[in-house]
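Lecture 7 notes: from sequence to structure.

We start with a single chain of 175 residues. Read the sequence below before looking at the structure.
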Amino acid sequence: MLFLDGHGSHLNLTFLEWCLQHKILVAWYPPHSTHRLQPLDVGCFAPLASYCSQGLDGLIRRSEGHTVVKKRDFFALFWPAFQQAFRKEVITSAWLKAGIWPFDPQAVLMDLPEQHTPPNQSQSKKRHWSSSPPSVFDTPSQAKKIRHSLNQLSTRTSPSTARKLKHLGRAFARQ
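Now the structure, written as tokens:
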């Protein structure tokens, strides 16, 4: 199984066909969620940054502040930090904290902050036809902009696409 973030560079048919041929299951993290779900983000990169900073602080202390860190010095600072941050127990803990292995969605859900926002008077009086929250499409100015964009787009496309856009605009207007 291969876990990927939702970046567009990962989404192409050639790659997906290759994965299918090699029996690799591909799972995408939801957008803007890797900081909570990706094991490296959850458990390894923060310690790596901390250990790198400690190594740099140590170098500055030993040289009494009379040093210049150059590119060639990077690996000598990075490698010991990497070895500390990517130990087996740290990686295992990261997978556990991300709720991936063993599978435990509550491991992530329990860390999410609860939102206690009192309902706004004007919103509580407004009734929606569904139980879903209001969207940006509910505002007349946004709806007008979207219809305008669809109309502009339909003038630059094939007749078939223009008909589909017109149909989409009508469906949107009924919402």
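The two ends are 40 Å apart (CA to CA). Keep this in mind for problem set 3.
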